[in-house]
Design goal:
The protein is of the alpha+beta class. The strands form twelve sheets. Strands 1, 7, 8, 9, 10, 11, 12, 13, 14, 15, 16, 17, 18 and 19 form a 14-stranded antiparallel sheet that branches. It has a seven-stranded antiparallel sheet with strand order 46-49-58-51-52-53-54, with no helix packed on it. A seven-stranded antiparallel sheet has the order 47-48-59-50-55-56-57, with no helix packed on it. A hairpin with a 4-residue loop joins β32 and β33 (548-551). The protein is globular and about 80 Å long. The chain starts with a strand and ends with a strand.
Length: 978
């Protein structure tokens, strides 16, 4: 044993840690203890410096830092006490090296508390376990400098201030913000405590407790991994040569799939689930019409699955006779169309259901964590419920028996299990742990056909080995959610769940029905994923926010059908990948850098093919290799970035590595001959200017085909009153393969151009092998508002510490403002208003054209008050749209000037039409997407409303977590009618 107190001389001291030259060595200098692990045949070797002035850890490979903890006031090894105060390890007081373990003892910022860390080095990883002695800690946490390791990945479905995981999934994680305070084994989210980096390091936290995980929260550049427990913090740090090797190290611990729960057919054809089509407004007639439309339009699938709201009550497992009068007949008709039939089920039994009391009487429910003498009652999206205790063999047998009886009676082929198998408000059965319920849920689900809907289990070896399909958490219906679905599949795949599918194609988060373009692009994206999970019919659907029917055109049906056919043709290749994954554990859908770790560009791109946004072109990055363009039939040698690649709505860019195993199958499945030969790209993709001020854009017309194009002409379509002048040629007599016609245009907006977005469309006409063709690309040019002043009868006021600015141009208005929040605890905003404008029966209305704030809760909207310069005089109410979290309708119920009632939620959208009506002391809030069809947000009594009130537009940056940041809000059409 070598003991070396570090409280004396600062002179360098060195000691051999082991006699064996091949094993780890420990050396000491004045400011650090260093563990050196030599390279071996299968590992690159590394050093770990343990700073002694203040305990911090720096991992290096080949002399370069690849992972480092924080230091200073933040601290590396941190702990919280009962009062919530954070403390951290400080100077090292002692260390020992014995039996391959480096034990380090350090003081802390809390008197009477010390930190003991134990580091066990291995060839390609080291174990880091540490405790706090004294001080009664409640939480232990490890904090890293994110930039020290490059980019960060892993985690699974990430909660973010920007709406994740439903509408946001940053890729890489440090490109956005992750704030995930309930990161644990019972979570509904698909998560594992594993992260890996572009510098080929990784972190696994070994815990069964809930964690609080944050990466770049508030853009602080930190990775914080806190375990909500005073017990030993156990973790493993991986140090490898490539990110793929880090992933394989992790899989070596948690396990890989031993089988695929889904058979070939479920990979080959979509599952059609009723949820996003109807939500809970479903009945027998609607479901049959849905299935018939799909069948008659050739929209193939293996199963029609009936989601939520078929039961007489949640947990009864009996049919609602009013909405499903003949379930046996329903099942037969669906089977006669060639589909399997499935239903949605849950282990959660509502308190008012017939089965609840039976389950209570027989002890079949989980018990309350705080009072184990009574059942655990939990609130969920469908009411109050108890949860079947799967650790009770009799409860499990009873529940299984009910399921099998239901299936046998009504010819139900499979099930979609939803909700969780455990909730943190409940207590595990005696002899069981929280993590056991993931295993028990896995075992239960494994007895049934899950029909490609899979199951959301995670965090344990059984879940990894079961080979279930993994469906994502519910997504929104916009482009942001489509992009999140792609990066989220990568995140889930690379924490060890390879059989992934996106959320239902088109989204399912209760938002307005997806647009044609979003629905088609989502289907095209899903066609290249392992499985297709569908719901919204491309024939027609229902907008859940308005209750109105939405009809799609024939092209939507045709393109969706084409995506299904593409996936079916790709199925043999996908099935080969499934078999490969069962052997290696490597994910099917994986980031480019897993296969091309030296290609720097691949660390920040999501996919090389599907179009996930508006427009008709995209840039595609191809790593080193020889690639076959399945749309154009050309061979491209990488690395190469294809700028402005043709991707009109009917085209899904896809490239096959000719040297990859199975390349022939992929090419046969994906090759097509009808893609446009050329594309036109406008840059920049979001030009911005002032009214009447010229700006430049460039159009690039590129020939992506193998042949030569002739009579090529570029043009620009402009809004009324705008002009454009070209610099350089706008025509080319011929354009060979790979050649580009580039034209620069000086565009001048109209002098009275309205603020906001204006379509700018570049077009190209040409003659090719398929005759005369035309392609186009559209960007939105932004005409910016500029601070100036407002004109009578409009006034301004504010309650912020910053100086807001305002502008008016006719019926358009703009506010630039700071403010910590606009809510009950803090009322800070900029205001444009009319004095004494709203009578006792009045309506205030405006269009919120756009809003931009760094804070996801930045707010902009309309307001009423007796006096908007002094809200404490009563009658105060606001209706605002937040940057990321939808609407908020807030009122002051007691006349103290504080907003203390709330209604709202949903998705954020622009333009947003906002309306507040006043009938004496009754205020009602409405919102609309088009100014025609209105949805009520809420209604409230405001007893202090009196006389004629002020009415106006308001904006707050809500920057309490983003100090100094402002919001820009643009309005139009503000009116007050009395």
């Amino acid at each position: 044993m070598l003991m070396a107190p570090l409280t004396g001389s600062t002179a360098a001291a060195t000691a051999a840690a082991t006699a064996a030259t091949a094993g780890p060595k420990v050396t000491r200098t004045a400011n650090a203890v260093t563990v050196s692990v030599p390279a071996s045949a299968n590992a690159p070797g590394y050093t770990l410096d343990v700073a002694t002035d203040e305990l911090a850890l720096t991992t290096r490979r080949a002399g370069k830092t690849v992972l480092a903890t924080t230091s200073g006031d933040t601290g590396a090894l941190r702990f919280a006490t009962a009062d919530g105060t954070w403390q951290h390890a400080t100077g090292v007081t002692d260390w020992t090296w014995k039996n391959g373990v480096l034990t380090v003892t350090a003081d802390s910022t809390l008197d009477g508390a010390t930190v003991e860390a134990r580091i066990t080095p291995g060839a390609d990883r080291y174990q880091l376990d540490w405790d706090v002695r004294g001080g009664a800690p409640k939480q232990l946490g490890l904090t890293y400098d994110l930039s020290s390791a490059g980019h960060w990945y892993g985690h699974g479905e990430a909660e973010t201030p920007q709406g994740g995981p439903g509408t946001d999934q940053p890729w890489p994680l440090d490109a956005g913000e992750v704030d995930h305070p309930t990161f644990g084994p019972a979570s509904y989210h698909m998560i594992d405590p594993f992260w890996y980096t572009s510098k080929s390091t990784g972190l696994r936290v070994d815990t069964g407790n809930v964690m609080d995980v944050a990466l770049n929260k508030g853009k602080d550049g930190l990775g914080s991994f806190v375990v909500e427990s005073p017990d030993t913090f156990k973790s493993t740090v991986f140090v490898e040569s490539t990110p793929l090797e880090v992933y394989r190290d992790y899989i070596g611990i948690v396990g890989k799939p031993t089988k695929s729960d889904a058979p070939y057919e479920q990979y080959a054809k979509p599952l059609w689930n009723s949820w996003a089509q109807f939500y809970t407004k479903v009945d027998q007639e609607k479901l049959l019409d849905y299935a018939t439309d799909l069948h008659d339009n050739g929209l193939d699938g293996h199963t029609i699955q009936l989601d939520d709201k078929w039961e007489s009550n949640y947990g009864n497992l009996t049919w609602d006779p009013k909405t499903f009068p003949d379930p046996k007949g329903l099942s037969k008709k669906i089977h006669d169309m060639g589909f399997d039939f499935g239903v949605w089920v849950t282990l959660w039994i509502n308190l008012d259901s017939a089965n609840y009391q039976y389950a209570v009487d027989h002890g079949y429910l989980l018990m309350d964590a705080k009072d184990k003498t009574k059942p655990c009652d939990v609130t969920w999206w469908n009411g109050e419920a108890g949860i079947i205790d799967l650790a009770n063999p009799e409860a499990k047998a009873w529940y299984e028996g009910n399921l099998k009886s239901l299936m046998d009676t009504y010819d139900i082929d499979g099930l979609k299990f939803d909700t969780r198998f455990f909730d943190e408000r409940c207590a595990p059965r005696e002899g069981s742990q929280v993590t056991d319920y993931q295993k028990l849920g896995t075992q239960l689900a494994d007895e049934f056909d899950l029909q490609g809907a899979g199951i959301r289990v995670h965090w344990n070896k059984t879940a990894h080995e079961a080979g279930f399909v993994t469906r994502q958490v519910d997504k929104g219906t916009g482009w942001d959610s489509l992009r999140a679905s792609a990066s989220q599949n990568l995140a889930i795949s690379t924490i060890g769940y390879p059989f992934v599918e996106s959320d239902m194609i088109g989204g399912s988060g209760g938002q307005p029905a997806p647009t044609k373009d979003v629905l088609v692009r989502w289907a095209q994206s899903a066609s290249l994923m392992p499985l297709m999970y569908a719901s919204t019919s491309p024939v027609d659907t229902n907008d859940t926010t308005t209750g109105q029917k939405v009809d799609y055109d024939q092209e939507t049906v045709d393109l969706y059908r084409q995506a299904i056919k593409t996936h079916e043709k790709l199925a043999p290749y996908i099935w080969d990948q499934v078999q490969s994954t069962l052997k290696t554990g490597d994910p099917i859908m994986r980031p480019l850098f897993f296969d091309f770790p030296k290609d720097e560009a691949s660390y920040t791109v999501v996919l090389a093919a599907p179009k996930l946004s508006t427009g008709a072109t995209r840039s595609v990055h191809l790593p080193p290799g020889t690639w076959y363009d399945v749309n154009q039939g050309t061979v491209i040698r990488g690395p190469k970035t294809l700028k402005g690649y043709a991707a009109p709505l009917g085209v899904t860019p896809a490239f096959v590595n000719l040297k990859a195993k199975g390349a022939d199958k992929a090419i046969r499945a994906l090759k097509r001959d009808d893609a446009p030969a050329a594309a036109v790209l406008i840059t920049p993709d979001a030009p911005a200017t002032d009214a009447g001020k010229p700006f430049q854009v460039t159009t690039d017309v590129t020939n992506w085909s193998t042949g030569t194009l002739t009579s090529v002409k570029a043009a620009l379509d402009l809004p009324d009153g705008w002009s454009a002048k070209s610099t350089g040629p706008t025509t080319a007599s011929s354009l060979k393969n790979g050649a580009t016609l580039t034209t620069t245009w000086t565009v001048t907006p109209a002098a009275d151009a309205r603020w906001g977005s204006h379509d700018l469309t570049g077009t190209a006409t040409y003659n090719g092998s398929n005759g005369s063709q035309k392609v186009s690309d559209t960007v939105q040019a932004q005409v910016k508002a500029a601070p100036s002043s407002v004109q009578a009868p409009y006034l301004t006021t504010d309650t912020t510490s910053e100086d807001p600015q305002y502008a008016q141009a006719g019926d358009q208005f703009a506010i630039w403002a700071g403010g910590q929040d606009l809510s009950g605890w803090k009322d800070e905003k900029g205001v444009i208003y009319r004095d004494d404008a709203a009578g006792e029966k009045s309506t205030v209305q405006a269009q919120l054209v756009s809003q931009h704030s760094t804070s996801p809760v930045g707010k902009a909207g309309i307001a009423l008050a007796n006096d908007l310069t002094a809200p404490e005089k009563g009658g105060y109410a606001v209706l605002v749209m937040t940057q990321s979290y939808g609407l908020e309708f807030m009122t002051d119920s007691n006349g103290d000037g504080k907003l203390d009632t709330w209604a709202g939620g949903g998705a954020t959208y622009h333009p947003a039409y906002l309306k507040l009506t006043r009938d004496g002391t009754t205020y009602t809030a409405y919102a609309s997407k088009d100014g025609q069809t209105w949805s009520q947000v809420g209604t409230a009594e405001v007893p202090s409303a009196a006389g004629t009130e002020d009415a106006g537009m308001v904006a707050s940056a809500a920057n309490v977590n983003y100090p100094g940041e402002n919001i820009e809000a643009v309005f139009s059409g503000f009116t007050v009618t009395s």
